[in-house]
Amino acid sequence: QIGEVGAERDLFEFRAAEEGIIGLETRYPDHRQVERLRRSWNIHNMRELRVAVSGRHNSGTQEGAKDLAVDLLLYSRPLDYNYRVFAHGFYSRSEFPEGDGLYRRYGAGLEYRARDIKIEGELSTGASPDTELGLSLRAAWMPNDVWTWGATLDTYSNDVPLRGRLNEEVKGWSVGLSAGYRFHESRSIGAGVQWLDFSDGNRRIAYSLVGYQRLINRPTYK
Protein backbone atom coordinates (compact mmCIF):
# COMPACT_ATOMS: atom_id res chain seq x y z
CA GLN A 1 0.00 0.00 0.00
CA ILE A 2 2.90 2.36 0.71
CA GLY A 3 4.34 1.62 -2.73
CA GLU A 4 0.96 2.26 -4.33
CA VAL A 5 0.76 5.70 -2.71
CA GLY A 6 4.27 6.50 -3.95
CA ALA A 7 3.31 5.47 -7.48
CA GLU A 8 0.18 7.63 -7.39
CA ARG A 9 2.23 10.66 -6.39
CA ASP A 10 4.79 10.00 -9.16
CA LEU A 11 1.91 9.84 -11.65
CA PHE A 12 0.57 13.19 -10.34
CA GLU A 13 -2.56 11.55 -8.91
CA PHE A 14 -2.28 13.72 -5.81
CA ARG A 15 -5.83 13.42 -4.49
CA ALA A 16 -5.66 9.61 -4.52
CA ALA A 17 -2.22 9.72 -2.89
CA GLU A 18 -3.49 11.86 -0.01
CA GLU A 19 -6.48 9.58 0.51
CA GLY A 20 -4.12 6.60 0.63
CA ILE A 21 -1.88 8.27 3.23
CA ILE A 22 -4.86 9.11 5.45
CA GLY A 23 -6.05 5.50 5.22
CA LEU A 24 -2.61 4.15 6.12
CA GLU A 25 -2.31 6.51 9.10
CA THR A 26 -5.71 5.34 10.36
CA ARG A 27 -4.74 1.66 10.24
CA TYR A 28 -1.02 1.91 11.09
CA PRO A 29 -0.54 5.14 13.12
CA ASP A 30 2.86 4.14 14.56
CA HIS A 31 4.42 2.55 11.49
CA ARG A 32 7.81 4.14 10.69
CA GLN A 33 7.41 3.97 6.92
CA VAL A 34 3.94 5.52 7.15
CA GLU A 35 5.43 8.35 9.23
CA ARG A 36 8.11 8.92 6.58
CA LEU A 37 5.41 8.89 3.89
CA ARG A 38 3.49 11.61 5.75
CA ARG A 39 6.66 13.68 6.13
CA SER A 40 7.33 13.35 2.39
CA TRP A 41 3.75 14.41 1.62
CA ASN A 42 4.06 17.44 3.90
CA ILE A 43 7.19 18.47 1.97
CA HIS A 44 5.29 18.03 -1.31
CA ASN A 45 2.74 20.57 -0.04
CA MET A 46 5.34 23.23 0.76
CA ARG A 47 6.53 26.06 -1.45
CA GLU A 48 9.42 25.15 -3.75
CA LEU A 49 12.41 27.27 -4.70
CA ARG A 50 14.75 26.34 -7.58
CA VAL A 51 17.94 28.29 -8.19
CA ALA A 52 20.44 27.61 -10.97
CA VAL A 53 23.70 29.60 -11.15
CA SER A 54 26.32 29.27 -13.87
CA GLY A 55 29.49 31.17 -14.71
CA ARG A 56 32.37 31.16 -17.20
CA HIS A 57 35.73 32.83 -17.60
CA ASN A 58 37.04 33.09 -21.16
CA SER A 59 40.43 34.25 -22.45
CA GLY A 60 39.21 35.32 -25.89
CA THR A 61 37.44 38.52 -26.91
CA GLN A 62 34.73 37.00 -29.10
CA GLU A 63 32.87 35.79 -26.02
CA GLY A 64 32.38 37.54 -22.71
CA ALA A 65 35.45 37.55 -20.47
CA LYS A 66 33.35 36.85 -17.39
CA ASP A 67 29.85 35.41 -17.70
CA LEU A 68 27.29 34.99 -14.93
CA ALA A 69 23.71 33.71 -15.20
CA VAL A 70 21.14 33.20 -12.43
CA ASP A 71 17.79 31.46 -13.04
CA LEU A 72 15.30 31.50 -10.16
CA LEU A 73 11.86 29.85 -9.88
CA LEU A 74 9.57 30.13 -6.83
CA TYR A 75 6.48 27.88 -6.77
CA SER A 76 3.50 28.30 -4.46
CA ARG A 77 1.98 25.52 -2.42
CA PRO A 78 -0.26 23.21 -4.50
CA LEU A 79 -3.70 24.67 -5.22
CA ASP A 80 -6.57 22.21 -5.56
CA TYR A 81 -3.95 19.41 -5.77
CA ASN A 82 -2.99 19.94 -9.43
CA TYR A 83 -2.07 23.62 -9.75
CA ARG A 84 0.81 25.85 -8.65
CA VAL A 85 1.51 29.47 -9.48
CA PHE A 86 5.13 30.56 -9.80
CA ALA A 87 7.38 33.59 -10.15
CA HIS A 88 10.41 33.49 -12.43
CA GLY A 89 13.49 35.68 -12.48
CA PHE A 90 16.43 35.47 -14.89
CA TYR A 91 19.63 37.56 -14.72
CA SER A 92 22.64 37.42 -17.03
CA ARG A 93 25.70 39.62 -17.42
CA SER A 94 29.01 39.50 -19.28
CA GLU A 95 32.04 41.73 -19.89
CA PHE A 96 32.90 42.59 -23.52
CA PRO A 97 35.60 44.90 -24.97
CA GLU A 98 32.87 47.33 -26.09
CA GLY A 99 31.08 47.31 -22.73
CA ASP A 100 29.21 45.15 -20.24
CA GLY A 101 26.15 43.22 -21.37
CA LEU A 102 23.24 42.96 -18.92
CA TYR A 103 19.94 41.12 -19.35
CA ARG A 104 17.09 40.80 -16.85
CA ARG A 105 13.76 39.07 -17.30
CA TYR A 106 10.81 38.65 -14.90
CA GLY A 107 7.82 36.38 -15.28
CA ALA A 108 4.83 34.75 -13.61
CA GLY A 109 2.88 31.69 -14.60
CA LEU A 110 0.77 28.67 -13.78
CA GLU A 111 1.72 24.99 -13.60
CA TYR A 112 -0.77 22.13 -14.06
CA ARG A 113 0.05 18.52 -13.18
CA ALA A 114 -2.29 15.59 -13.78
CA ARG A 115 -1.84 11.92 -14.60
CA ASP A 116 1.05 11.54 -17.05
CA ILE A 117 1.23 15.24 -18.00
CA LYS A 118 2.74 18.51 -16.79
CA ILE A 119 2.07 21.87 -18.46
CA GLU A 120 3.47 25.31 -17.61
CA GLY A 121 2.48 28.67 -19.07
CA GLU A 122 4.32 31.91 -18.32
CA LEU A 123 4.13 35.60 -19.25
CA SER A 124 7.34 37.61 -18.90
CA THR A 125 8.80 41.05 -19.42
CA GLY A 126 12.17 42.64 -18.78
CA ALA A 127 14.16 45.74 -18.04
CA SER A 128 14.71 48.21 -20.88
CA PRO A 129 15.29 47.54 -23.76
CA ASP A 130 13.84 44.03 -23.22
CA THR A 131 10.38 45.11 -22.04
CA GLU A 132 8.52 43.30 -24.81
CA LEU A 133 5.95 40.83 -23.47
CA GLY A 134 6.89 37.18 -23.90
CA LEU A 135 4.91 33.94 -23.72
CA SER A 136 6.51 30.64 -22.71
CA LEU A 137 4.87 27.20 -22.81
CA ARG A 138 6.43 23.98 -21.52
CA ALA A 139 4.80 20.55 -21.64
CA ALA A 140 5.82 17.01 -20.69
CA TRP A 141 3.97 13.77 -21.40
CA MET A 142 4.80 10.47 -19.68
CA PRO A 143 2.73 7.76 -21.44
CA ASN A 144 4.33 4.91 -19.45
CA ASP A 145 7.07 4.10 -16.95
CA VAL A 146 9.96 4.45 -19.39
CA TRP A 147 9.21 7.23 -21.91
CA THR A 148 8.98 10.99 -21.39
CA TRP A 149 8.24 13.42 -24.24
CA GLY A 150 8.60 17.19 -23.99
CA ALA A 151 7.93 20.34 -26.00
CA THR A 152 8.68 24.03 -25.42
CA LEU A 153 7.75 27.33 -27.04
CA ASP A 154 9.22 30.69 -26.05
CA THR A 155 8.37 33.87 -27.94
CA TYR A 156 11.16 35.85 -26.18
CA SER A 157 13.94 33.37 -25.56
CA ASN A 158 16.56 33.79 -22.81
CA ASP A 159 18.98 31.78 -25.00
CA VAL A 160 19.76 34.68 -27.34
CA PRO A 161 23.51 35.49 -26.99
CA LEU A 162 24.14 38.47 -24.72
CA ARG A 163 26.53 40.19 -27.15
CA GLY A 164 23.83 40.31 -29.79
CA ARG A 165 21.46 41.93 -27.30
CA LEU A 166 24.14 44.48 -26.34
CA ASN A 167 25.27 45.53 -29.83
CA GLU A 168 22.22 45.06 -32.05
CA GLU A 169 19.31 44.60 -29.60
CA VAL A 170 18.79 41.15 -31.10
CA LYS A 171 15.89 39.08 -29.76
CA GLY A 172 14.47 35.73 -30.79
CA TRP A 173 11.89 33.01 -30.34
CA SER A 174 12.48 29.29 -29.92
CA VAL A 175 10.78 25.92 -30.10
CA GLY A 176 12.14 22.65 -28.74
CA LEU A 177 11.39 18.94 -28.62
CA SER A 178 12.85 16.32 -26.29
CA ALA A 179 12.56 12.64 -25.47
CA GLY A 180 13.80 10.60 -22.52
CA TYR A 181 14.03 6.87 -21.87
CA ARG A 182 14.38 5.43 -18.36
CA PHE A 183 15.75 1.88 -18.18
CA HIS A 184 15.14 1.77 -14.41
CA GLU A 185 15.56 3.97 -11.34
CA SER A 186 19.35 4.18 -11.79
CA ARG A 187 19.80 4.72 -15.54
CA SER A 188 18.25 6.97 -18.16
CA ILE A 189 19.10 8.70 -21.43
CA GLY A 190 17.63 11.67 -23.25
CA ALA A 191 17.92 13.74 -26.41
CA GLY A 192 16.58 17.09 -27.57
CA VAL A 193 16.59 19.63 -30.37
CA GLN A 194 15.95 23.39 -30.22
CA TRP A 195 15.26 25.82 -33.06
CA LEU A 196 16.11 29.46 -32.28
CA ASP A 197 15.14 32.22 -34.75
CA PHE A 198 16.89 35.59 -34.27
CA SER A 199 15.44 38.99 -35.18
CA ASP A 200 18.53 39.79 -37.34
CA GLY A 201 17.79 36.89 -39.72
CA ASN A 202 20.14 34.31 -38.21
CA ARG A 203 18.95 30.92 -37.06
CA ARG A 204 20.44 28.28 -34.80
CA ILE A 205 19.64 24.61 -34.28
CA ALA A 206 21.01 23.07 -31.09
CA TYR A 207 21.11 19.35 -30.30
CA SER A 208 21.58 17.78 -26.89
CA LEU A 209 22.25 14.28 -25.60
CA VAL A 210 22.33 13.38 -21.91
CA GLY A 211 22.89 10.21 -19.91
CA TYR A 212 22.34 9.49 -16.21
CA GLN A 213 23.72 6.59 -14.21
CA ARG A 214 23.51 6.11 -10.46
CA LEU A 215 26.80 4.65 -9.20
CA ILE A 216 26.12 4.12 -5.47
CA ASN A 217 22.78 3.27 -3.88
CA ARG A 218 22.56 3.10 -0.08
CA PRO A 219 19.66 3.49 2.38
CA THR A 220 20.74 6.96 3.55
CA TYR A 221 22.68 8.30 0.55
CA LYS A 222 23.05 7.83 -3.20
Strand arrangement across the biggest beta sheet: 1-2-3-4-5-6-7-8-9-10
Please estimate the helix content: 10-25%
**Percentage of β-strand residues:** over 45%
Distance from N terminus to C terminus (CA atoms, Å) equals 25 Å
| Structural class based on helices, strands and sheet pairing | alpha+beta
Low-confidence stretches: none
DSSP, total strands: 10
Largest sheet: 10 strands, antiparallel
What is the typical, i.e. mean, pLDDT?
93
Secondary-structure element sequence? HHHEEEEEEEHEEE
Number of distinct helices: 4
Principal-axis shape equals elongated
Q: Mind telling me the C-alpha Rg?
A: 21 Å
Q: What does this 3D model show about the protein?
A:
- The protein is α+β, with helices and mostly antiparallel strands and 222 residues long.
- It contains 4 helices and 10 strands, in the order H-H-H-E-E-E-E-E-E-E-H-E-E-E.
- A 10-stranded antiparallel beta sheet has the order 1-2-3-4-5-6-7-8-9-10.
- Strand 6 and strand 7 form a beta hairpin.
- Helix 1 runs antiparallel to helix 2 and helix 2 runs antiparallel to helix 3.
Structure characteristics:
222 residues, ten-stranded antiparallel beta sheet
Write the layout of secondary structure elements.
Elements: H1 2-10, H2 14-27, H3 32-44, E1 48-57, E2 66-75, E3 83-96, E4 99-114, E5 117-126, E6 134-141, E7 147-154, H4 162-168, E8 172-184, E9 187-198, E10 203-213
Antiparallel strand pairs: 1-2, 2-3, 3-4, 4-5, 5-6, 6-7, 7-8, 8-9, 9-10
Helix pairs in contact: 1-2, 2-3
Could you give a short description of this structure?
By secondary structure, the protein is an alpha+beta fold. It is 19% helix and 50% strand.
